[in-house]
Every structure is written in C-alpha cells, then in structure tokens.
Amino acid sequence: MPIQLVILALLFFIMIYLPYLPGSLPPQSPEATTVVLGFILLASFFFGRLTAKMYLPLITGYLIAGMLFGPYGLGIFRGEDVERLAMIDSLALSFIAMAAGGEMDRHQIMKRAANILTVTFFQIAGVFIGIAALFYLLLHFSLLNIAATGPAALYAAIILGIIATANSPSSVVAIINESRAKGPVTETTLGVTVIKDIMVILLFALAVSWIQSDMEGNGGGAAGMVFLDIFTDLFLSILVGTALGFFVIIYLNTLRGQMLLFTLGVAVISSELSSIFDLNELIVCIMVGFIVRNFSGHEIGRAHV
C-alpha cells in the first residue's frame, strides 16, 4: 500500500504539471481527456483497494476518488472532461442496469411481491415526508439564508423530498456483485430499487407539472398530460427492453460467441435507442437482463457485466 500511495502521488503531480511541459497537450483538448481518464481509473482503483482494507465496499473508494479529483474537488477531472466522457457514463449505466435485471428472478419476485411493495411504500413515504418537512421548515423560516415565500418553500420541499427517495442502482449492484450476495434480502433489495426508480420518475414528473400548473393557474390539465407522456415513455422503454432481451436470447441460442463484445454491443444499442426515442435507458437495460434471466437458460448479469 505505501508503494501504491507513492505511485498515486507521483501521478497526481504529473497531472498537475503536465500542461506546463514543453509540447504537452492543451488541457481542453480531447486527447488530454483520455490522459485524465487513465489517471482517474488508476486513482479509483487505489482508493477502492484502500477502502476494502477498511472493510468498506469498493464503490466507496471510487466515489471518494471522484469527489477528490473531480470538478468540485482538486479539479484534475474538469467539467468538459465529464461532458466528453458522457458516452462511457451511459455505457456504464447500461451494463449496471443489465446486471440488475439479470439478478431478478420473476418467481422469487412474485413470491416476495408483498414485502417488496411494503418496503417500497414505507421507504418512499418515510423519506419523502421527513426530508420535505425538514426543508420546508428550513426554507420557510429562512434558516438557509435563502429567501422563500410560503408556496415557493413548499414547492422546493416537495421536489427535494422526491429526489431524496431515489436509490442508486449502480451502488446496489456494485455491492451485490462484490459480495456475491444471494438470497431473499438481495432479491428484495433489487426489487425495491427498481420499483423506487420507476416511482421516483413518475412522482417527479407529476410534482413538476403540478407546481407549474399551480404557479400559472392552469389547473390539472397540464399535469395530466405530463403524466401521460412519462407513462408512455416508460411503457415504450419496457417494450423496447423486452424486444432487445428476446433478441439477446436468439443470439445466445444460436451463436454464443464473443459474449463480452456482444454485451457491449447491446449496451451501445440500448443507449442509442434510448437517446434517439427519448426512452429511459435504465428501464430498457433492466428489462434486457430480466428477459434473458427469466426466459432462457442463459444469464447476462454478473458473469458478463
């Protein structure tokens, strides 16, 4: 570990002084972004190993590295770098979502449906009420040095309360994969995470449309239209994900070669289709993994992602 720390420190100082070396790449160039990506991958690996020695998940170290070297930390990873690497971010989300779907067995989910729905309801209700009430009081009494009238404080509290209820599928899947966890707790956690993400999307859309209608005095018509649009997007996302899932099954039943490369291709296709047709990429990829897991003898979960 001391050797790794020394290497990381050397790489850090190299990244700091690299723009000032003769013939070096301009910091704003796309080529420089590749160098920065290499550094942040090595830094994440180091911090992941460090947190593992503290009996914490690897993803904790990855998050620390991102915060420390990111745009709002030491600035090694700049805002334009994040924008240039948006495709990698999208592909990573696709892999994670397929892994999450690939861990969900429909028979086990149906068996535990009551538990999943109960946990989901109390998590959403408890977190939303607590966070919304806290921020309403803070904003209403100007305890955050932000001037907000009664309705404005209520609107902000509702939005913040809904955002706080969201789970991170990437964190859940990363910890499950790392610990090789299986069983009822794992399946319930995955089910709750997926359902909460869908509910948060719907609730956020409804809240924003209701707030906009209330501020403009248009009634509930606009809110209903926004909800219909969001519901349609979710339905199409499920439909496209299901179709892609059966396409993967056909491939696995016939060729089965170059599975890792094929999985990457599926992730790219899912990402592009979601972008073109304004679908929810997370739902599309979850459905791909879910269909492959439950309607074939194959897996596209932790073995390939």
Structural overview:
- The chain has 305 residues and is mostly helical.
- The protein contains 13 helices and no strands.
- It has helices at residues 2-17, 30-53, 58-69, 79-84, 86-102, 106-111, 113-140, 150-164, 169-179, 184-216, 221-254, 259-276, 281-294.
- Helix 7 (113-140) packs antiparallel against helix 8 and helix 7 (113-140) crosses helix 10.
- The mean pLDDT is 80.
Reported for the largest beta sheet, the result is: none
Low-pLDDT ranges: none
- What is the H-and-E element order? HHHHHHHHHHHHH
Helix content: over 70%
| Beta fraction | under 5%
Number of helices: 13
Overall geometric form = globular
Q: Which structural class matches the secondary elements?
A: mainly alpha
The rounded Rg comes to 22 Å
In angstroms, what separates the terminal alpha carbons? 28 Å
Can you give the mean pLDDT? 80
Q: What is the count of β-strands?
A: 0
